[in-house]
TrEMBL record, chain A:
One of the record's GO cellular component terms: membrane
Species of origin: Musa acuminata subsp. malaccensis
Lineage of origin: Eukaryota, Viridiplantae, Streptophyta, Embryophyta, Tracheophyta
Topological category with respect to the lipid bilayer: Multi-pass membrane protein
Domain P-type ATPase C-terminal: 786-1023
Protein name: Phospholipid-transporting ATPase
Biological-process GO terms, alphabetical: phospholipid transport
SUPFAM superfamilies associated with the record: Calcium ATPase, transduction domain A (SSF81653), Calcium ATPase, transmembrane domain M (SSF81665), HAD-like (SSF56784), Metal cation-transporting ATPase, ATP-binding domain N (SSF81660)
Automatic annotation (TrEMBL), chain B:
Keyword match Transmembrane: yes
The keyword Transmembrane helix appears for this protein: yes
Subcellular location: Membrane
Protein name: ALA-interacting subunit
GO cellular component: endoplasmic reticulum; Golgi apparatus; plasma membrane
Family in the record: Belongs to the CDC50/LEM3 family.
Annotated TM spans: 49-71, 306-331
């Protein structure tokens, strides 16, 4: 293991490590251009266009002026580079600000003001209250006599509560003058990115001799960009400097590093566009080869006879390549150069719409929604599985102490609030021993920090919401935690002061699932171990002979109510036992390797033979609108899985409360459990069998699996479980670890489902990063999840709007934009190809370079960008008919078959434009410049009408863009027509004066658009898709769903959709638009008028089964 | 369970009001644009609308079609293909040899009958078939700078392979297009009187003024071993060489007409025009055709039935579609936006 030694206050060794200059910049002034270009050219599209542009420099083969490709290419590169440069400049500015910040540092025994960038490793830094920590420090002294200080780490992990940092033992009690001259050495591992761990040792040099190696943990450190609070001053040694910072920007630095660089996510739409681009590329290659051959043959048979062309008898060796290469260049515009830029632009706008959305603004916490990843909005509309955390995501994570059971006596069962239970209040007042002990554990066994404000009221800062609830509840029961200074702790019980000395804290970890404190009662000197934790972590520690049955029952009962339970226990320790253990504990704490594991082992030694005295029940309320949101999204055909670390019963209760599953007669839960592999396998197979059989019954089936069984399943029976996962629309996984959550996401992803993971806490981060879309709830458990997520929202219910409104619109818009981009490129390219048959297959370009460039970059790119404002259905209609999301989920609007439609349309339009132009401008009018301008005008007119007919709603901006673009086309061309040196000098004026020009163009539009309109009308009216029907309903008769009868009709029937949607989403490869409306209802299902929570299982099961085989093949 | 579900709705309804008065700066600014609520018109394809559009298009297109067809019919056009006829009978076996033999005088006489009265101006065109002026090698083989500016005579880039003479002096005008200038000539006589052909102003004025210099004179033109087409009078500046200017406006299609001149005289029906032509231009080696065209013009240009027929057809089709849609609409009415059409609203027991 790599170690480093930091010499405190020793100037001679400071050059060993780098200084504190922060540089988040990606570029310098000198390497900007090469580095940026290099980055940009790593994209395949850019390489392709560069190759084309370079080929165009060869004048022998270029059909057009190279400027027609170089121009757009340079514009596109310049735009990207400017954006990068701007970002980098901002990074530079913020770095500069941080670097030049003044800090107090001890140099040669005197305090000096220096800039933050000049701090060196080993320097002693002084901080005052509310100072930002300039680099990572080891605390060596504070103003507080107990040697503690408080820091706020919200910039690091988003947790707003204060954390205690303590001076290491060796430095406790040093006066501030002594700190100026302190010398020593700190041994620590090389810097890493883990912000929750630091395992080091410190040894002081004379005169501060301390024989022991003093262990250092994360609680002795102040990390950069934390803030010092509630402490007058603190002083620390620069430990290691911000060398991690060189990659990421701003204050996200460490967080960015600590979570690693996530792979950039690719949306399904992007993948489809890439696929289509590939197909077009192949098509282009075929065209080039065919035309190349044809061209060479024509050249040899015909062109040699044409004396005026003067083909040389024998050309150079590459002569055969010349014509194919010319066609390659001519056809290169098939792949639209502007598509990437347009897509990036509109995706940016989608993301902005999410940020701006007022209806997704959380009034409670005053946070707007935020799209951190601007590139994946379309995927929101294609979500098939939502994996959700429970605590803090479905619930508010606002814990309230509701009930308790002390030694078999239930409190709070009648009123639902133990704090109002007279019995309990009386028990406290009468000093009933068990009850007092119970409340004492509630008060003492935690890491809560009481803060006394100036007015004398006490508030608590807690890392855990449960602890906060317990301490507050205890205070209501007249046992008030007054202060906690270092190791001493004061409690006010009914007016009398009780003091405890905290000897050790056996911290909570998610593996141990319990925490304990060792305290010394200052009254009688007894040493006590107080423990609290999850039932399965505490109950096994009970002393032999204790009846734990009542506690198990209590836990069971509370879990049935959806309450979170904690078991409390205690034990008195003998002095000898404690001393012996304490030694081992100290040793474990100072190990550098596997400290956490060793600590857990040592803790285990102490935590046994507990006397269990009671169970607390804490309520975590459901967030507002959760059941409705889940129901709506389920109607939209999205499947829900709940992944929680909580108990099975609690999870099931919450699931019932929020419409996740339905209760017995309608729904059925299938449990997968077992302790051994065999048991688990048997259970799993039984569930699978039931699932297959009952899939023919209209039952709401869900399987429940716990973490233990899941561990075995994921290791051994992945294939079976995959089948089950495909069959089941609902699943509850309890007691799962963060990595299991991530594994489940991965499993669903491997089945080719689009997954969305939503969570709020640090334990959801991995799942959020793993999923196609990660949504973080910026809640009480800090911002970790929200930071890691692609989208952060304030409340779970915003998910509905995020998916149904933003996701759906984004998908629709991108689907249109991308296909349209190909359409317009293909259109002009087909015309060029047709023209080549009239120009001796020699690769002449019909259009001049300026027109080609402007066509791609301006005329056809700008109007279509207003698609970001297009709405096919109003938000309200979508919310009322969430089933419509199916079109997005199944990819109905962008797939090879819709693309084939656009391809056919461009072919047809190219034919129309070319044939009409050629016939109308035949004979004496057949002049190159004129004819090409007529054809171009035809294209521009057609594309304006195509955009118009494909748009669903027109705001003023759309009108401006479409018709303004039209005007701009004539304006720009007239302008170019006034330049004498231009090839098209006077052409536009000439044409505009000819009646035949206008008549030709109008003819092109009529012939081009007539069939499109007729076909669209026919489909719209007689083969209407659900979208069309809703459009008609929405627009012809206003909001239809305000009518009561209809509403109920919709409701009673909407279950079938659940089945329909899943079954049909599997046909995504063979989609044809009217499929939904034309498809038959599930054959054997019967009409039911049961409540909204039931849904039909038949259809999905069957189709899933059939599709599962193909899917399974992928796994094997 | 009751307690928790009952209280679930409680707090959040109140909390919204609490924060209302104090607006946070992070709060999204409300505007119709940011909320995607710009007022929009959302047209839908109702039968009424679609049927009226098709009817309207039909109503507009049919008259235009009739007008266009009439215009085209009023144009009187005489087309005479002479390339096959103007070869002496003994040379028909080897037309290329005939045309390439400079020693043979290639004068030829043709008689054209005027079918209908032709009003002046009568345009004289020559028409070439199967001639690829748009060929990649050909269409680029010119240099516009050289044509315009006398100082830039040396600029011959792009003119390959007719760039310079053997000794390297630049050809003006360079390039294949100029080199292959059409060189058949026509003389018309009506009865005994010579029909004068006005060759002034046959080219575009903009070309004469801005594309071809008035101080640029042909140099080294047609001096090579291989003679292409016509020679140019080296004492005439390029902007006066209107045949060249017309020729240099390359045609986009392999069949094209180029203006030869105008006859400012009315012709009567059954007038017989005698054309004395010199058949110099080689179209035989590539099976091209040469035609002489005399034509009047209309507001739509020359004789071209295409637009008229197309308009009539489209107009008719539109009427047909409008009727068809109306019939279907009446026979099988379908309520727009009926939610019972939604698949999830269909009665599943129907099967």
């Amino acid at each position: 293991m790599m170690k480093r030694f930091v010499y405190i206050n020793d100037d001679s060794s400071q050059d060993l490590y780098c200084d504190n200059r922060i540089s988040n910049r990606k570029y310098t002034l000198w390497n900007f251009l090469p580095k940026n270009l290099w980055e940009q050219f790593r994209r395949f599209m850019n390489q392709y266009f560069l190759l084309i542009a370079c080929l165009q420099l060869w004048s022998l083969i270029t059909p057009v002026n190279p400027a027609s490709t170089w121009g757009p290419l340079i514009i596109i590169f310049a735009v990207s580079a400017t954006k990068e440069a701007w970002d980098d400049y901002n990074r530079y500015l913020s770095d500069k600000q941080a670097n030049e910040k003044e800090v107090w540092v001890v140099k040669d025994g005197i305090r000096k003001h220096i800039q933050a960038q000049d701090i060196h490793v080993g320097n002693i830094v002084w901080l005052r209250e509310n100072d930002e920590v300039p680099c990572d420090l080891v605390l060596i002294g504070t103003s507080e006599p107990q040697g503690i200080c408080y820091v706020e780490t919200s910039a690091l992990d988003g947790e707003t509560d204060l954390k205690t940092r303590v001076v290491p033992l060796a430095c406790i009690g040093l006066a501030s003058e002594q700190l100026h001259i302190i010398k020593g050495v700190i041994e620590c591992p090389n810097p890493d990115k883990d912000i929750t761990r630091f395992d080091g040792n410190m040894r002081l040099f004379p005169p501060f001799i301390d024989n022991d190696l003093c262990p250092l943990t994360i609680s002795n450190t102040l990390l950069q960009s934390c803030y010092l609070r509630n402490t007058e001053w603190a002083c620390g040694v620069a430990k290691w400097l911000s060398i991690w910072l060189t990659i990421f920007s701003g204050n996200e630095t460490k967080l960015g590093m600590s979570r690693g660089v996530p792979e950039p996510k690719l949306t399904a739409v992007d993948a489809m566009i890439d696929k289509l681009t590939g197909a077009i590329f192949l098509f282009q290659v075929v065209v080039v080869i065919v035309l190349g051959f044809a061209g060479n043959i024509w050249k040899d048979t015909e062109a040699r006879k044409q004396w005026y062309v003067k083909y040389p008898e024998d050309g150079p060796w590459y002569e055969l390549l010349v014509i194919p290469l010319r066609f390659e260049l001519l056809c290169s515009i098939m792949i639209p150069i502007s598509i990437k830029v347009s897509l990036d632009l509109v995706k940016g706008i989608y993301a902005k719409f999410i940020d701006w959305d007022e209806e997704m603004y959380d009034h409670d916490t005053r946070t707007p929604s935020h799209a951190a990843n601007t590139a994946i909005s379309e995927d929101l509309g294609q979500v098939e599985y939502i994996l959700t955390d429970k605590t803090g995501t479905l619930t508010e994570n606002k814990m309230i102490f509701r009930r308790c059971c002390i030694n078999g006596v239930f409190y709070g069962n009648e009123s639902g609030d133990a704090l109002k239970d007279v019995q309990l209040l009386n028990a406290v007042a009468n000093n009933v021993a068990d009850v007092i002990r119970f409340v004492t554990i509630m008060t003492v066994c935690n890491t809560v920090i009481p803060i006394r404000s100036k007015s004398g009221t006490i508030s608590y800062k807690a890392q855990s919401q449960d602890e906060d609830a317990l301490v507050n509840a205890a205070a209501r029961l007249h046992m008030v935690l007054i202060s906690k200074n270092g190791s001493s702790l004061e409690i006010n019980l009914n007016g009398s002061l009780i003091q405890y000395e905290i000897l050790d804290i056996l911290e909570f970890t998610s593996d141990r699932k319990r925490m304990s404190v060792v305290v010394k009662d200052c009254q009688d000197g007894k040493i006590l171990l107080l423990s609290k934790g999850a039932d399965e972590a505490i109950l096994p520690c009970a002393y032999a002979g204790q009846q734990i049955r009542p506690f198990v029952d209590a836990v069971e009962q509370y879990a049935q109510l959806g309450l979170r339970t904690l078991c409390l226990g205690w034990r008195e320790l003998k002095d000898d036992e404690y001393n012996e253990w304490s030694h081992a504990f100290k040793q474990a704490r100072s190990t550098l390797v596997d400290r956490e594991w060793k600590l857990a082992e040592v803790c285990q030694i102490l935590e046994h033979d507990l006397e269990i005295i009671g169970v607390t029940a804490i309520e975590d309320r459901l967030q507002d609108g959760v059941p409705e949101t889940i129901e709506t999204l389920r109607q939209a055909g999205i499947n829900f899985w709940m992944l929680t670390g909580d108990k099975q019963n609690t999870a099931i209760q919450i699931a019932l409360l929020c419409n996740f599953i339905s209760s017995e007669p309608k729904g059925q839960l299938l449990f997968i459990n077992g302790k051994t592999e065999d048991e688990v396998l048997r259970s799993l197979e039984r569930v699978l069998l039931t699932m297959r059989i009952t899939s023919s019954e209209p039952k709401d089936l869900a399987f429940v699996v716990d973490g233990w069984a899941l561990e075995i399943i994921l290791k051994q029976y992945r294939a079976v479980f995959t089948e089950l996962a495909i069959l089941s629309r609902t699943a509850i996984c309890c007691r799962v670890t963060p990595s299991q959550k991530a594994q489940l996401v991965e499993l669903l992803k491997s089945c080719d489902y689009r997954t969305l993971a939503i969570g709020d806490g640090g334990n959801d981060v991995r799942m959020i990063q793993q999923a196609d879309i990660g949504v973080g709830i910026s809640g009480r458990e800090g911002l970790q999840a929200a930071r890691a997520a692609d989208y952060s929202i304030g409340k779970f219910r915003f998910l509905k709007r995020l998916i149904l409104v933003h996701g759906r619109y984004s998908y629709n818009r991108t689907a249109f934009l991308s296909q349209y981009s190909f359409y317009k490129s293909l259109l002009i390219c087909f015309i060029q190809i047709f023209f080549s048959f009239f120009s001796g297959v020699s690769g002449t370009s019909l259009f001049n370079s300026i027109s080609l460039m402007a066509y791609n970059v301006f005329y056809t790119s700008i109007p279509v960008l207003t698609v970001v404002l297009d709405k096919d259905l109003s938000e309200k209609t979508v919310m009322q008919n969430p089933q419509i999301l199916l079109y997005c989920q199944a990819g109905r609007l962008l797939n090879p078959s819709t693309f084939a439609g656009w391809f056919g349309r461009s072919l047809y339009h190219a034919l129309v434009v070319f044939l009409i132009t050629v016939h109308a401008y035949a004979d004496e009018k057949s002049e190159m410049e004129e004819l090409s301008m007529v054809a171009l005008s035809g294209c521009i007119w057609l594309q304006a009408f195509v955009v118009t007919i494909e748009m669903n709603s027109f705001t003023i901006l759309q009108h401006l863009a479409i018709w303004g673009n039209f005007a701009a086309f004539y304006f720009i061309n007239s302008l170019v027509s006034t330049i004498p040196s231009a090839g098209m000098y006077t052409i536009m004026f000439r044409l505009c004066r000819q009646p035949s020009y206008w008549i030709t163009v109008v003819l092109i539009v009529a012939v081009g658009m007539g069939p499109v309109l007729a076909l669209k009308y026919f489909r719209y009216t007689y083969r209407s898709s659900a979208i069309n029907i809703l459009q008609q309903a929405e627009r012809s008769r206003g909001p239809i769903f305000s009518m009561g009868g209809l509403e109920s009709q919709l409701k009673s029937l909407e279950k079938d959709v659940a089945s329909l949607s899943t079954s049909q989403s599997k046909f995504r490869n063979s989609v044809y638009e009217p499929l939904l409306s034309a498809s038959d209802p599930p054959p054997t299902s019967t009409r039911r008028s049961i409540g909204p929570a039931t849904f039909d299982f038949l259809q999905p099961a069957q189709s899933r089964l059939s599709s599962s085989y193909s899917r399974n093949c992928k796994d094997n | 369970m009751n307690s928790s579900s009952g209280s679930a709705a409680g707090p959040s309804s109140g909390s919204g009001d609490g924060s209302a008065p104090r607006r946070n700066s992070k709060r999204p600014k409300y505007s119709k644009f940011t909320q995607q609520e710009l007022p929009a018109c959302k047209p839908i394809l109702t039968p009424k609308w679609v049927i009226s559009v098709f009817t309207l298009v039909g109503v507009i297109f049919v008259p235009i079609g009739i007008a266009a067809l009439m215009a085209s019919n009023n144009v009187v056009e005489i087309v005479d293909r002479y390339d096959t006829e103007c070869i002496p009978a003994n040379m028909t076996g080897d037309k290329v040899a005939y045309i390439q033999n400079d020693d043979i005088i290639k004068t030829c006489t043709r008689n054209l009958t005027v079918p209908k009265d032709m009003d002046q101006p009568i345009y004289v065109y020559y028409q070439l078939d199967n001639f690829y002026q748009n060929h990649r090698r050909y269409v680029k083989s010119r240099n516009d700078a050289q044509l315009k500016d006398a100082d830039q005579a040396n600029k011959t880039s792009g003119c390959d392979p007719e760039k310079t003479t053997k000794d390297g002096s630049p050809i003006v005008p360079c390039g294949l297009i100029a080199w292959s200038l059409f060189n058949d000539t026509y003389n018309f006589t009506l009865g005994n009187k010579n029909l004068s052909v006005n060759k002034n102003g046959i080219s575009w004025k903009s070309d004469r003024d801005h594309k071809f210099g008035k101080d640029v004179f042909p140099k080294n033109f047609q001096n090579g071993i291989l003679r292409g087409g016509a020679s140019l009078d080296s004492n005439k500046p390029l902007n006066k060489q209107e045949d060249l200017i017309v020729w240099m406006r390359t045609a986009a299609l392999p069949t094209f007409r180029k203006l030869y001149g105008k006859i400012h005289q009315d012709l009567k029906a059954n007038d017989i025009i005698m054309v004395t032509l010199e058949n110099n231009y080689n179209t035989y080696s590539f099976n091209g055709k040469k035609k002489l065209v005399l034509s009047t013009s209309s507001w739509l240009g020359g004789k071209n039935d295409f637009l008229g027929i197309a308009y009539l057809t489209i107009g008719g089709l539109c009427f047909f579609l409008a009727t068809a849609f109306t019939v279907v609409y009446l026979v099988k009415p379908r309520k727009l936006g009926d939610p019972s059409y939604l698949s999830w609203n269909r009665n599943p027991s129907g099967h």
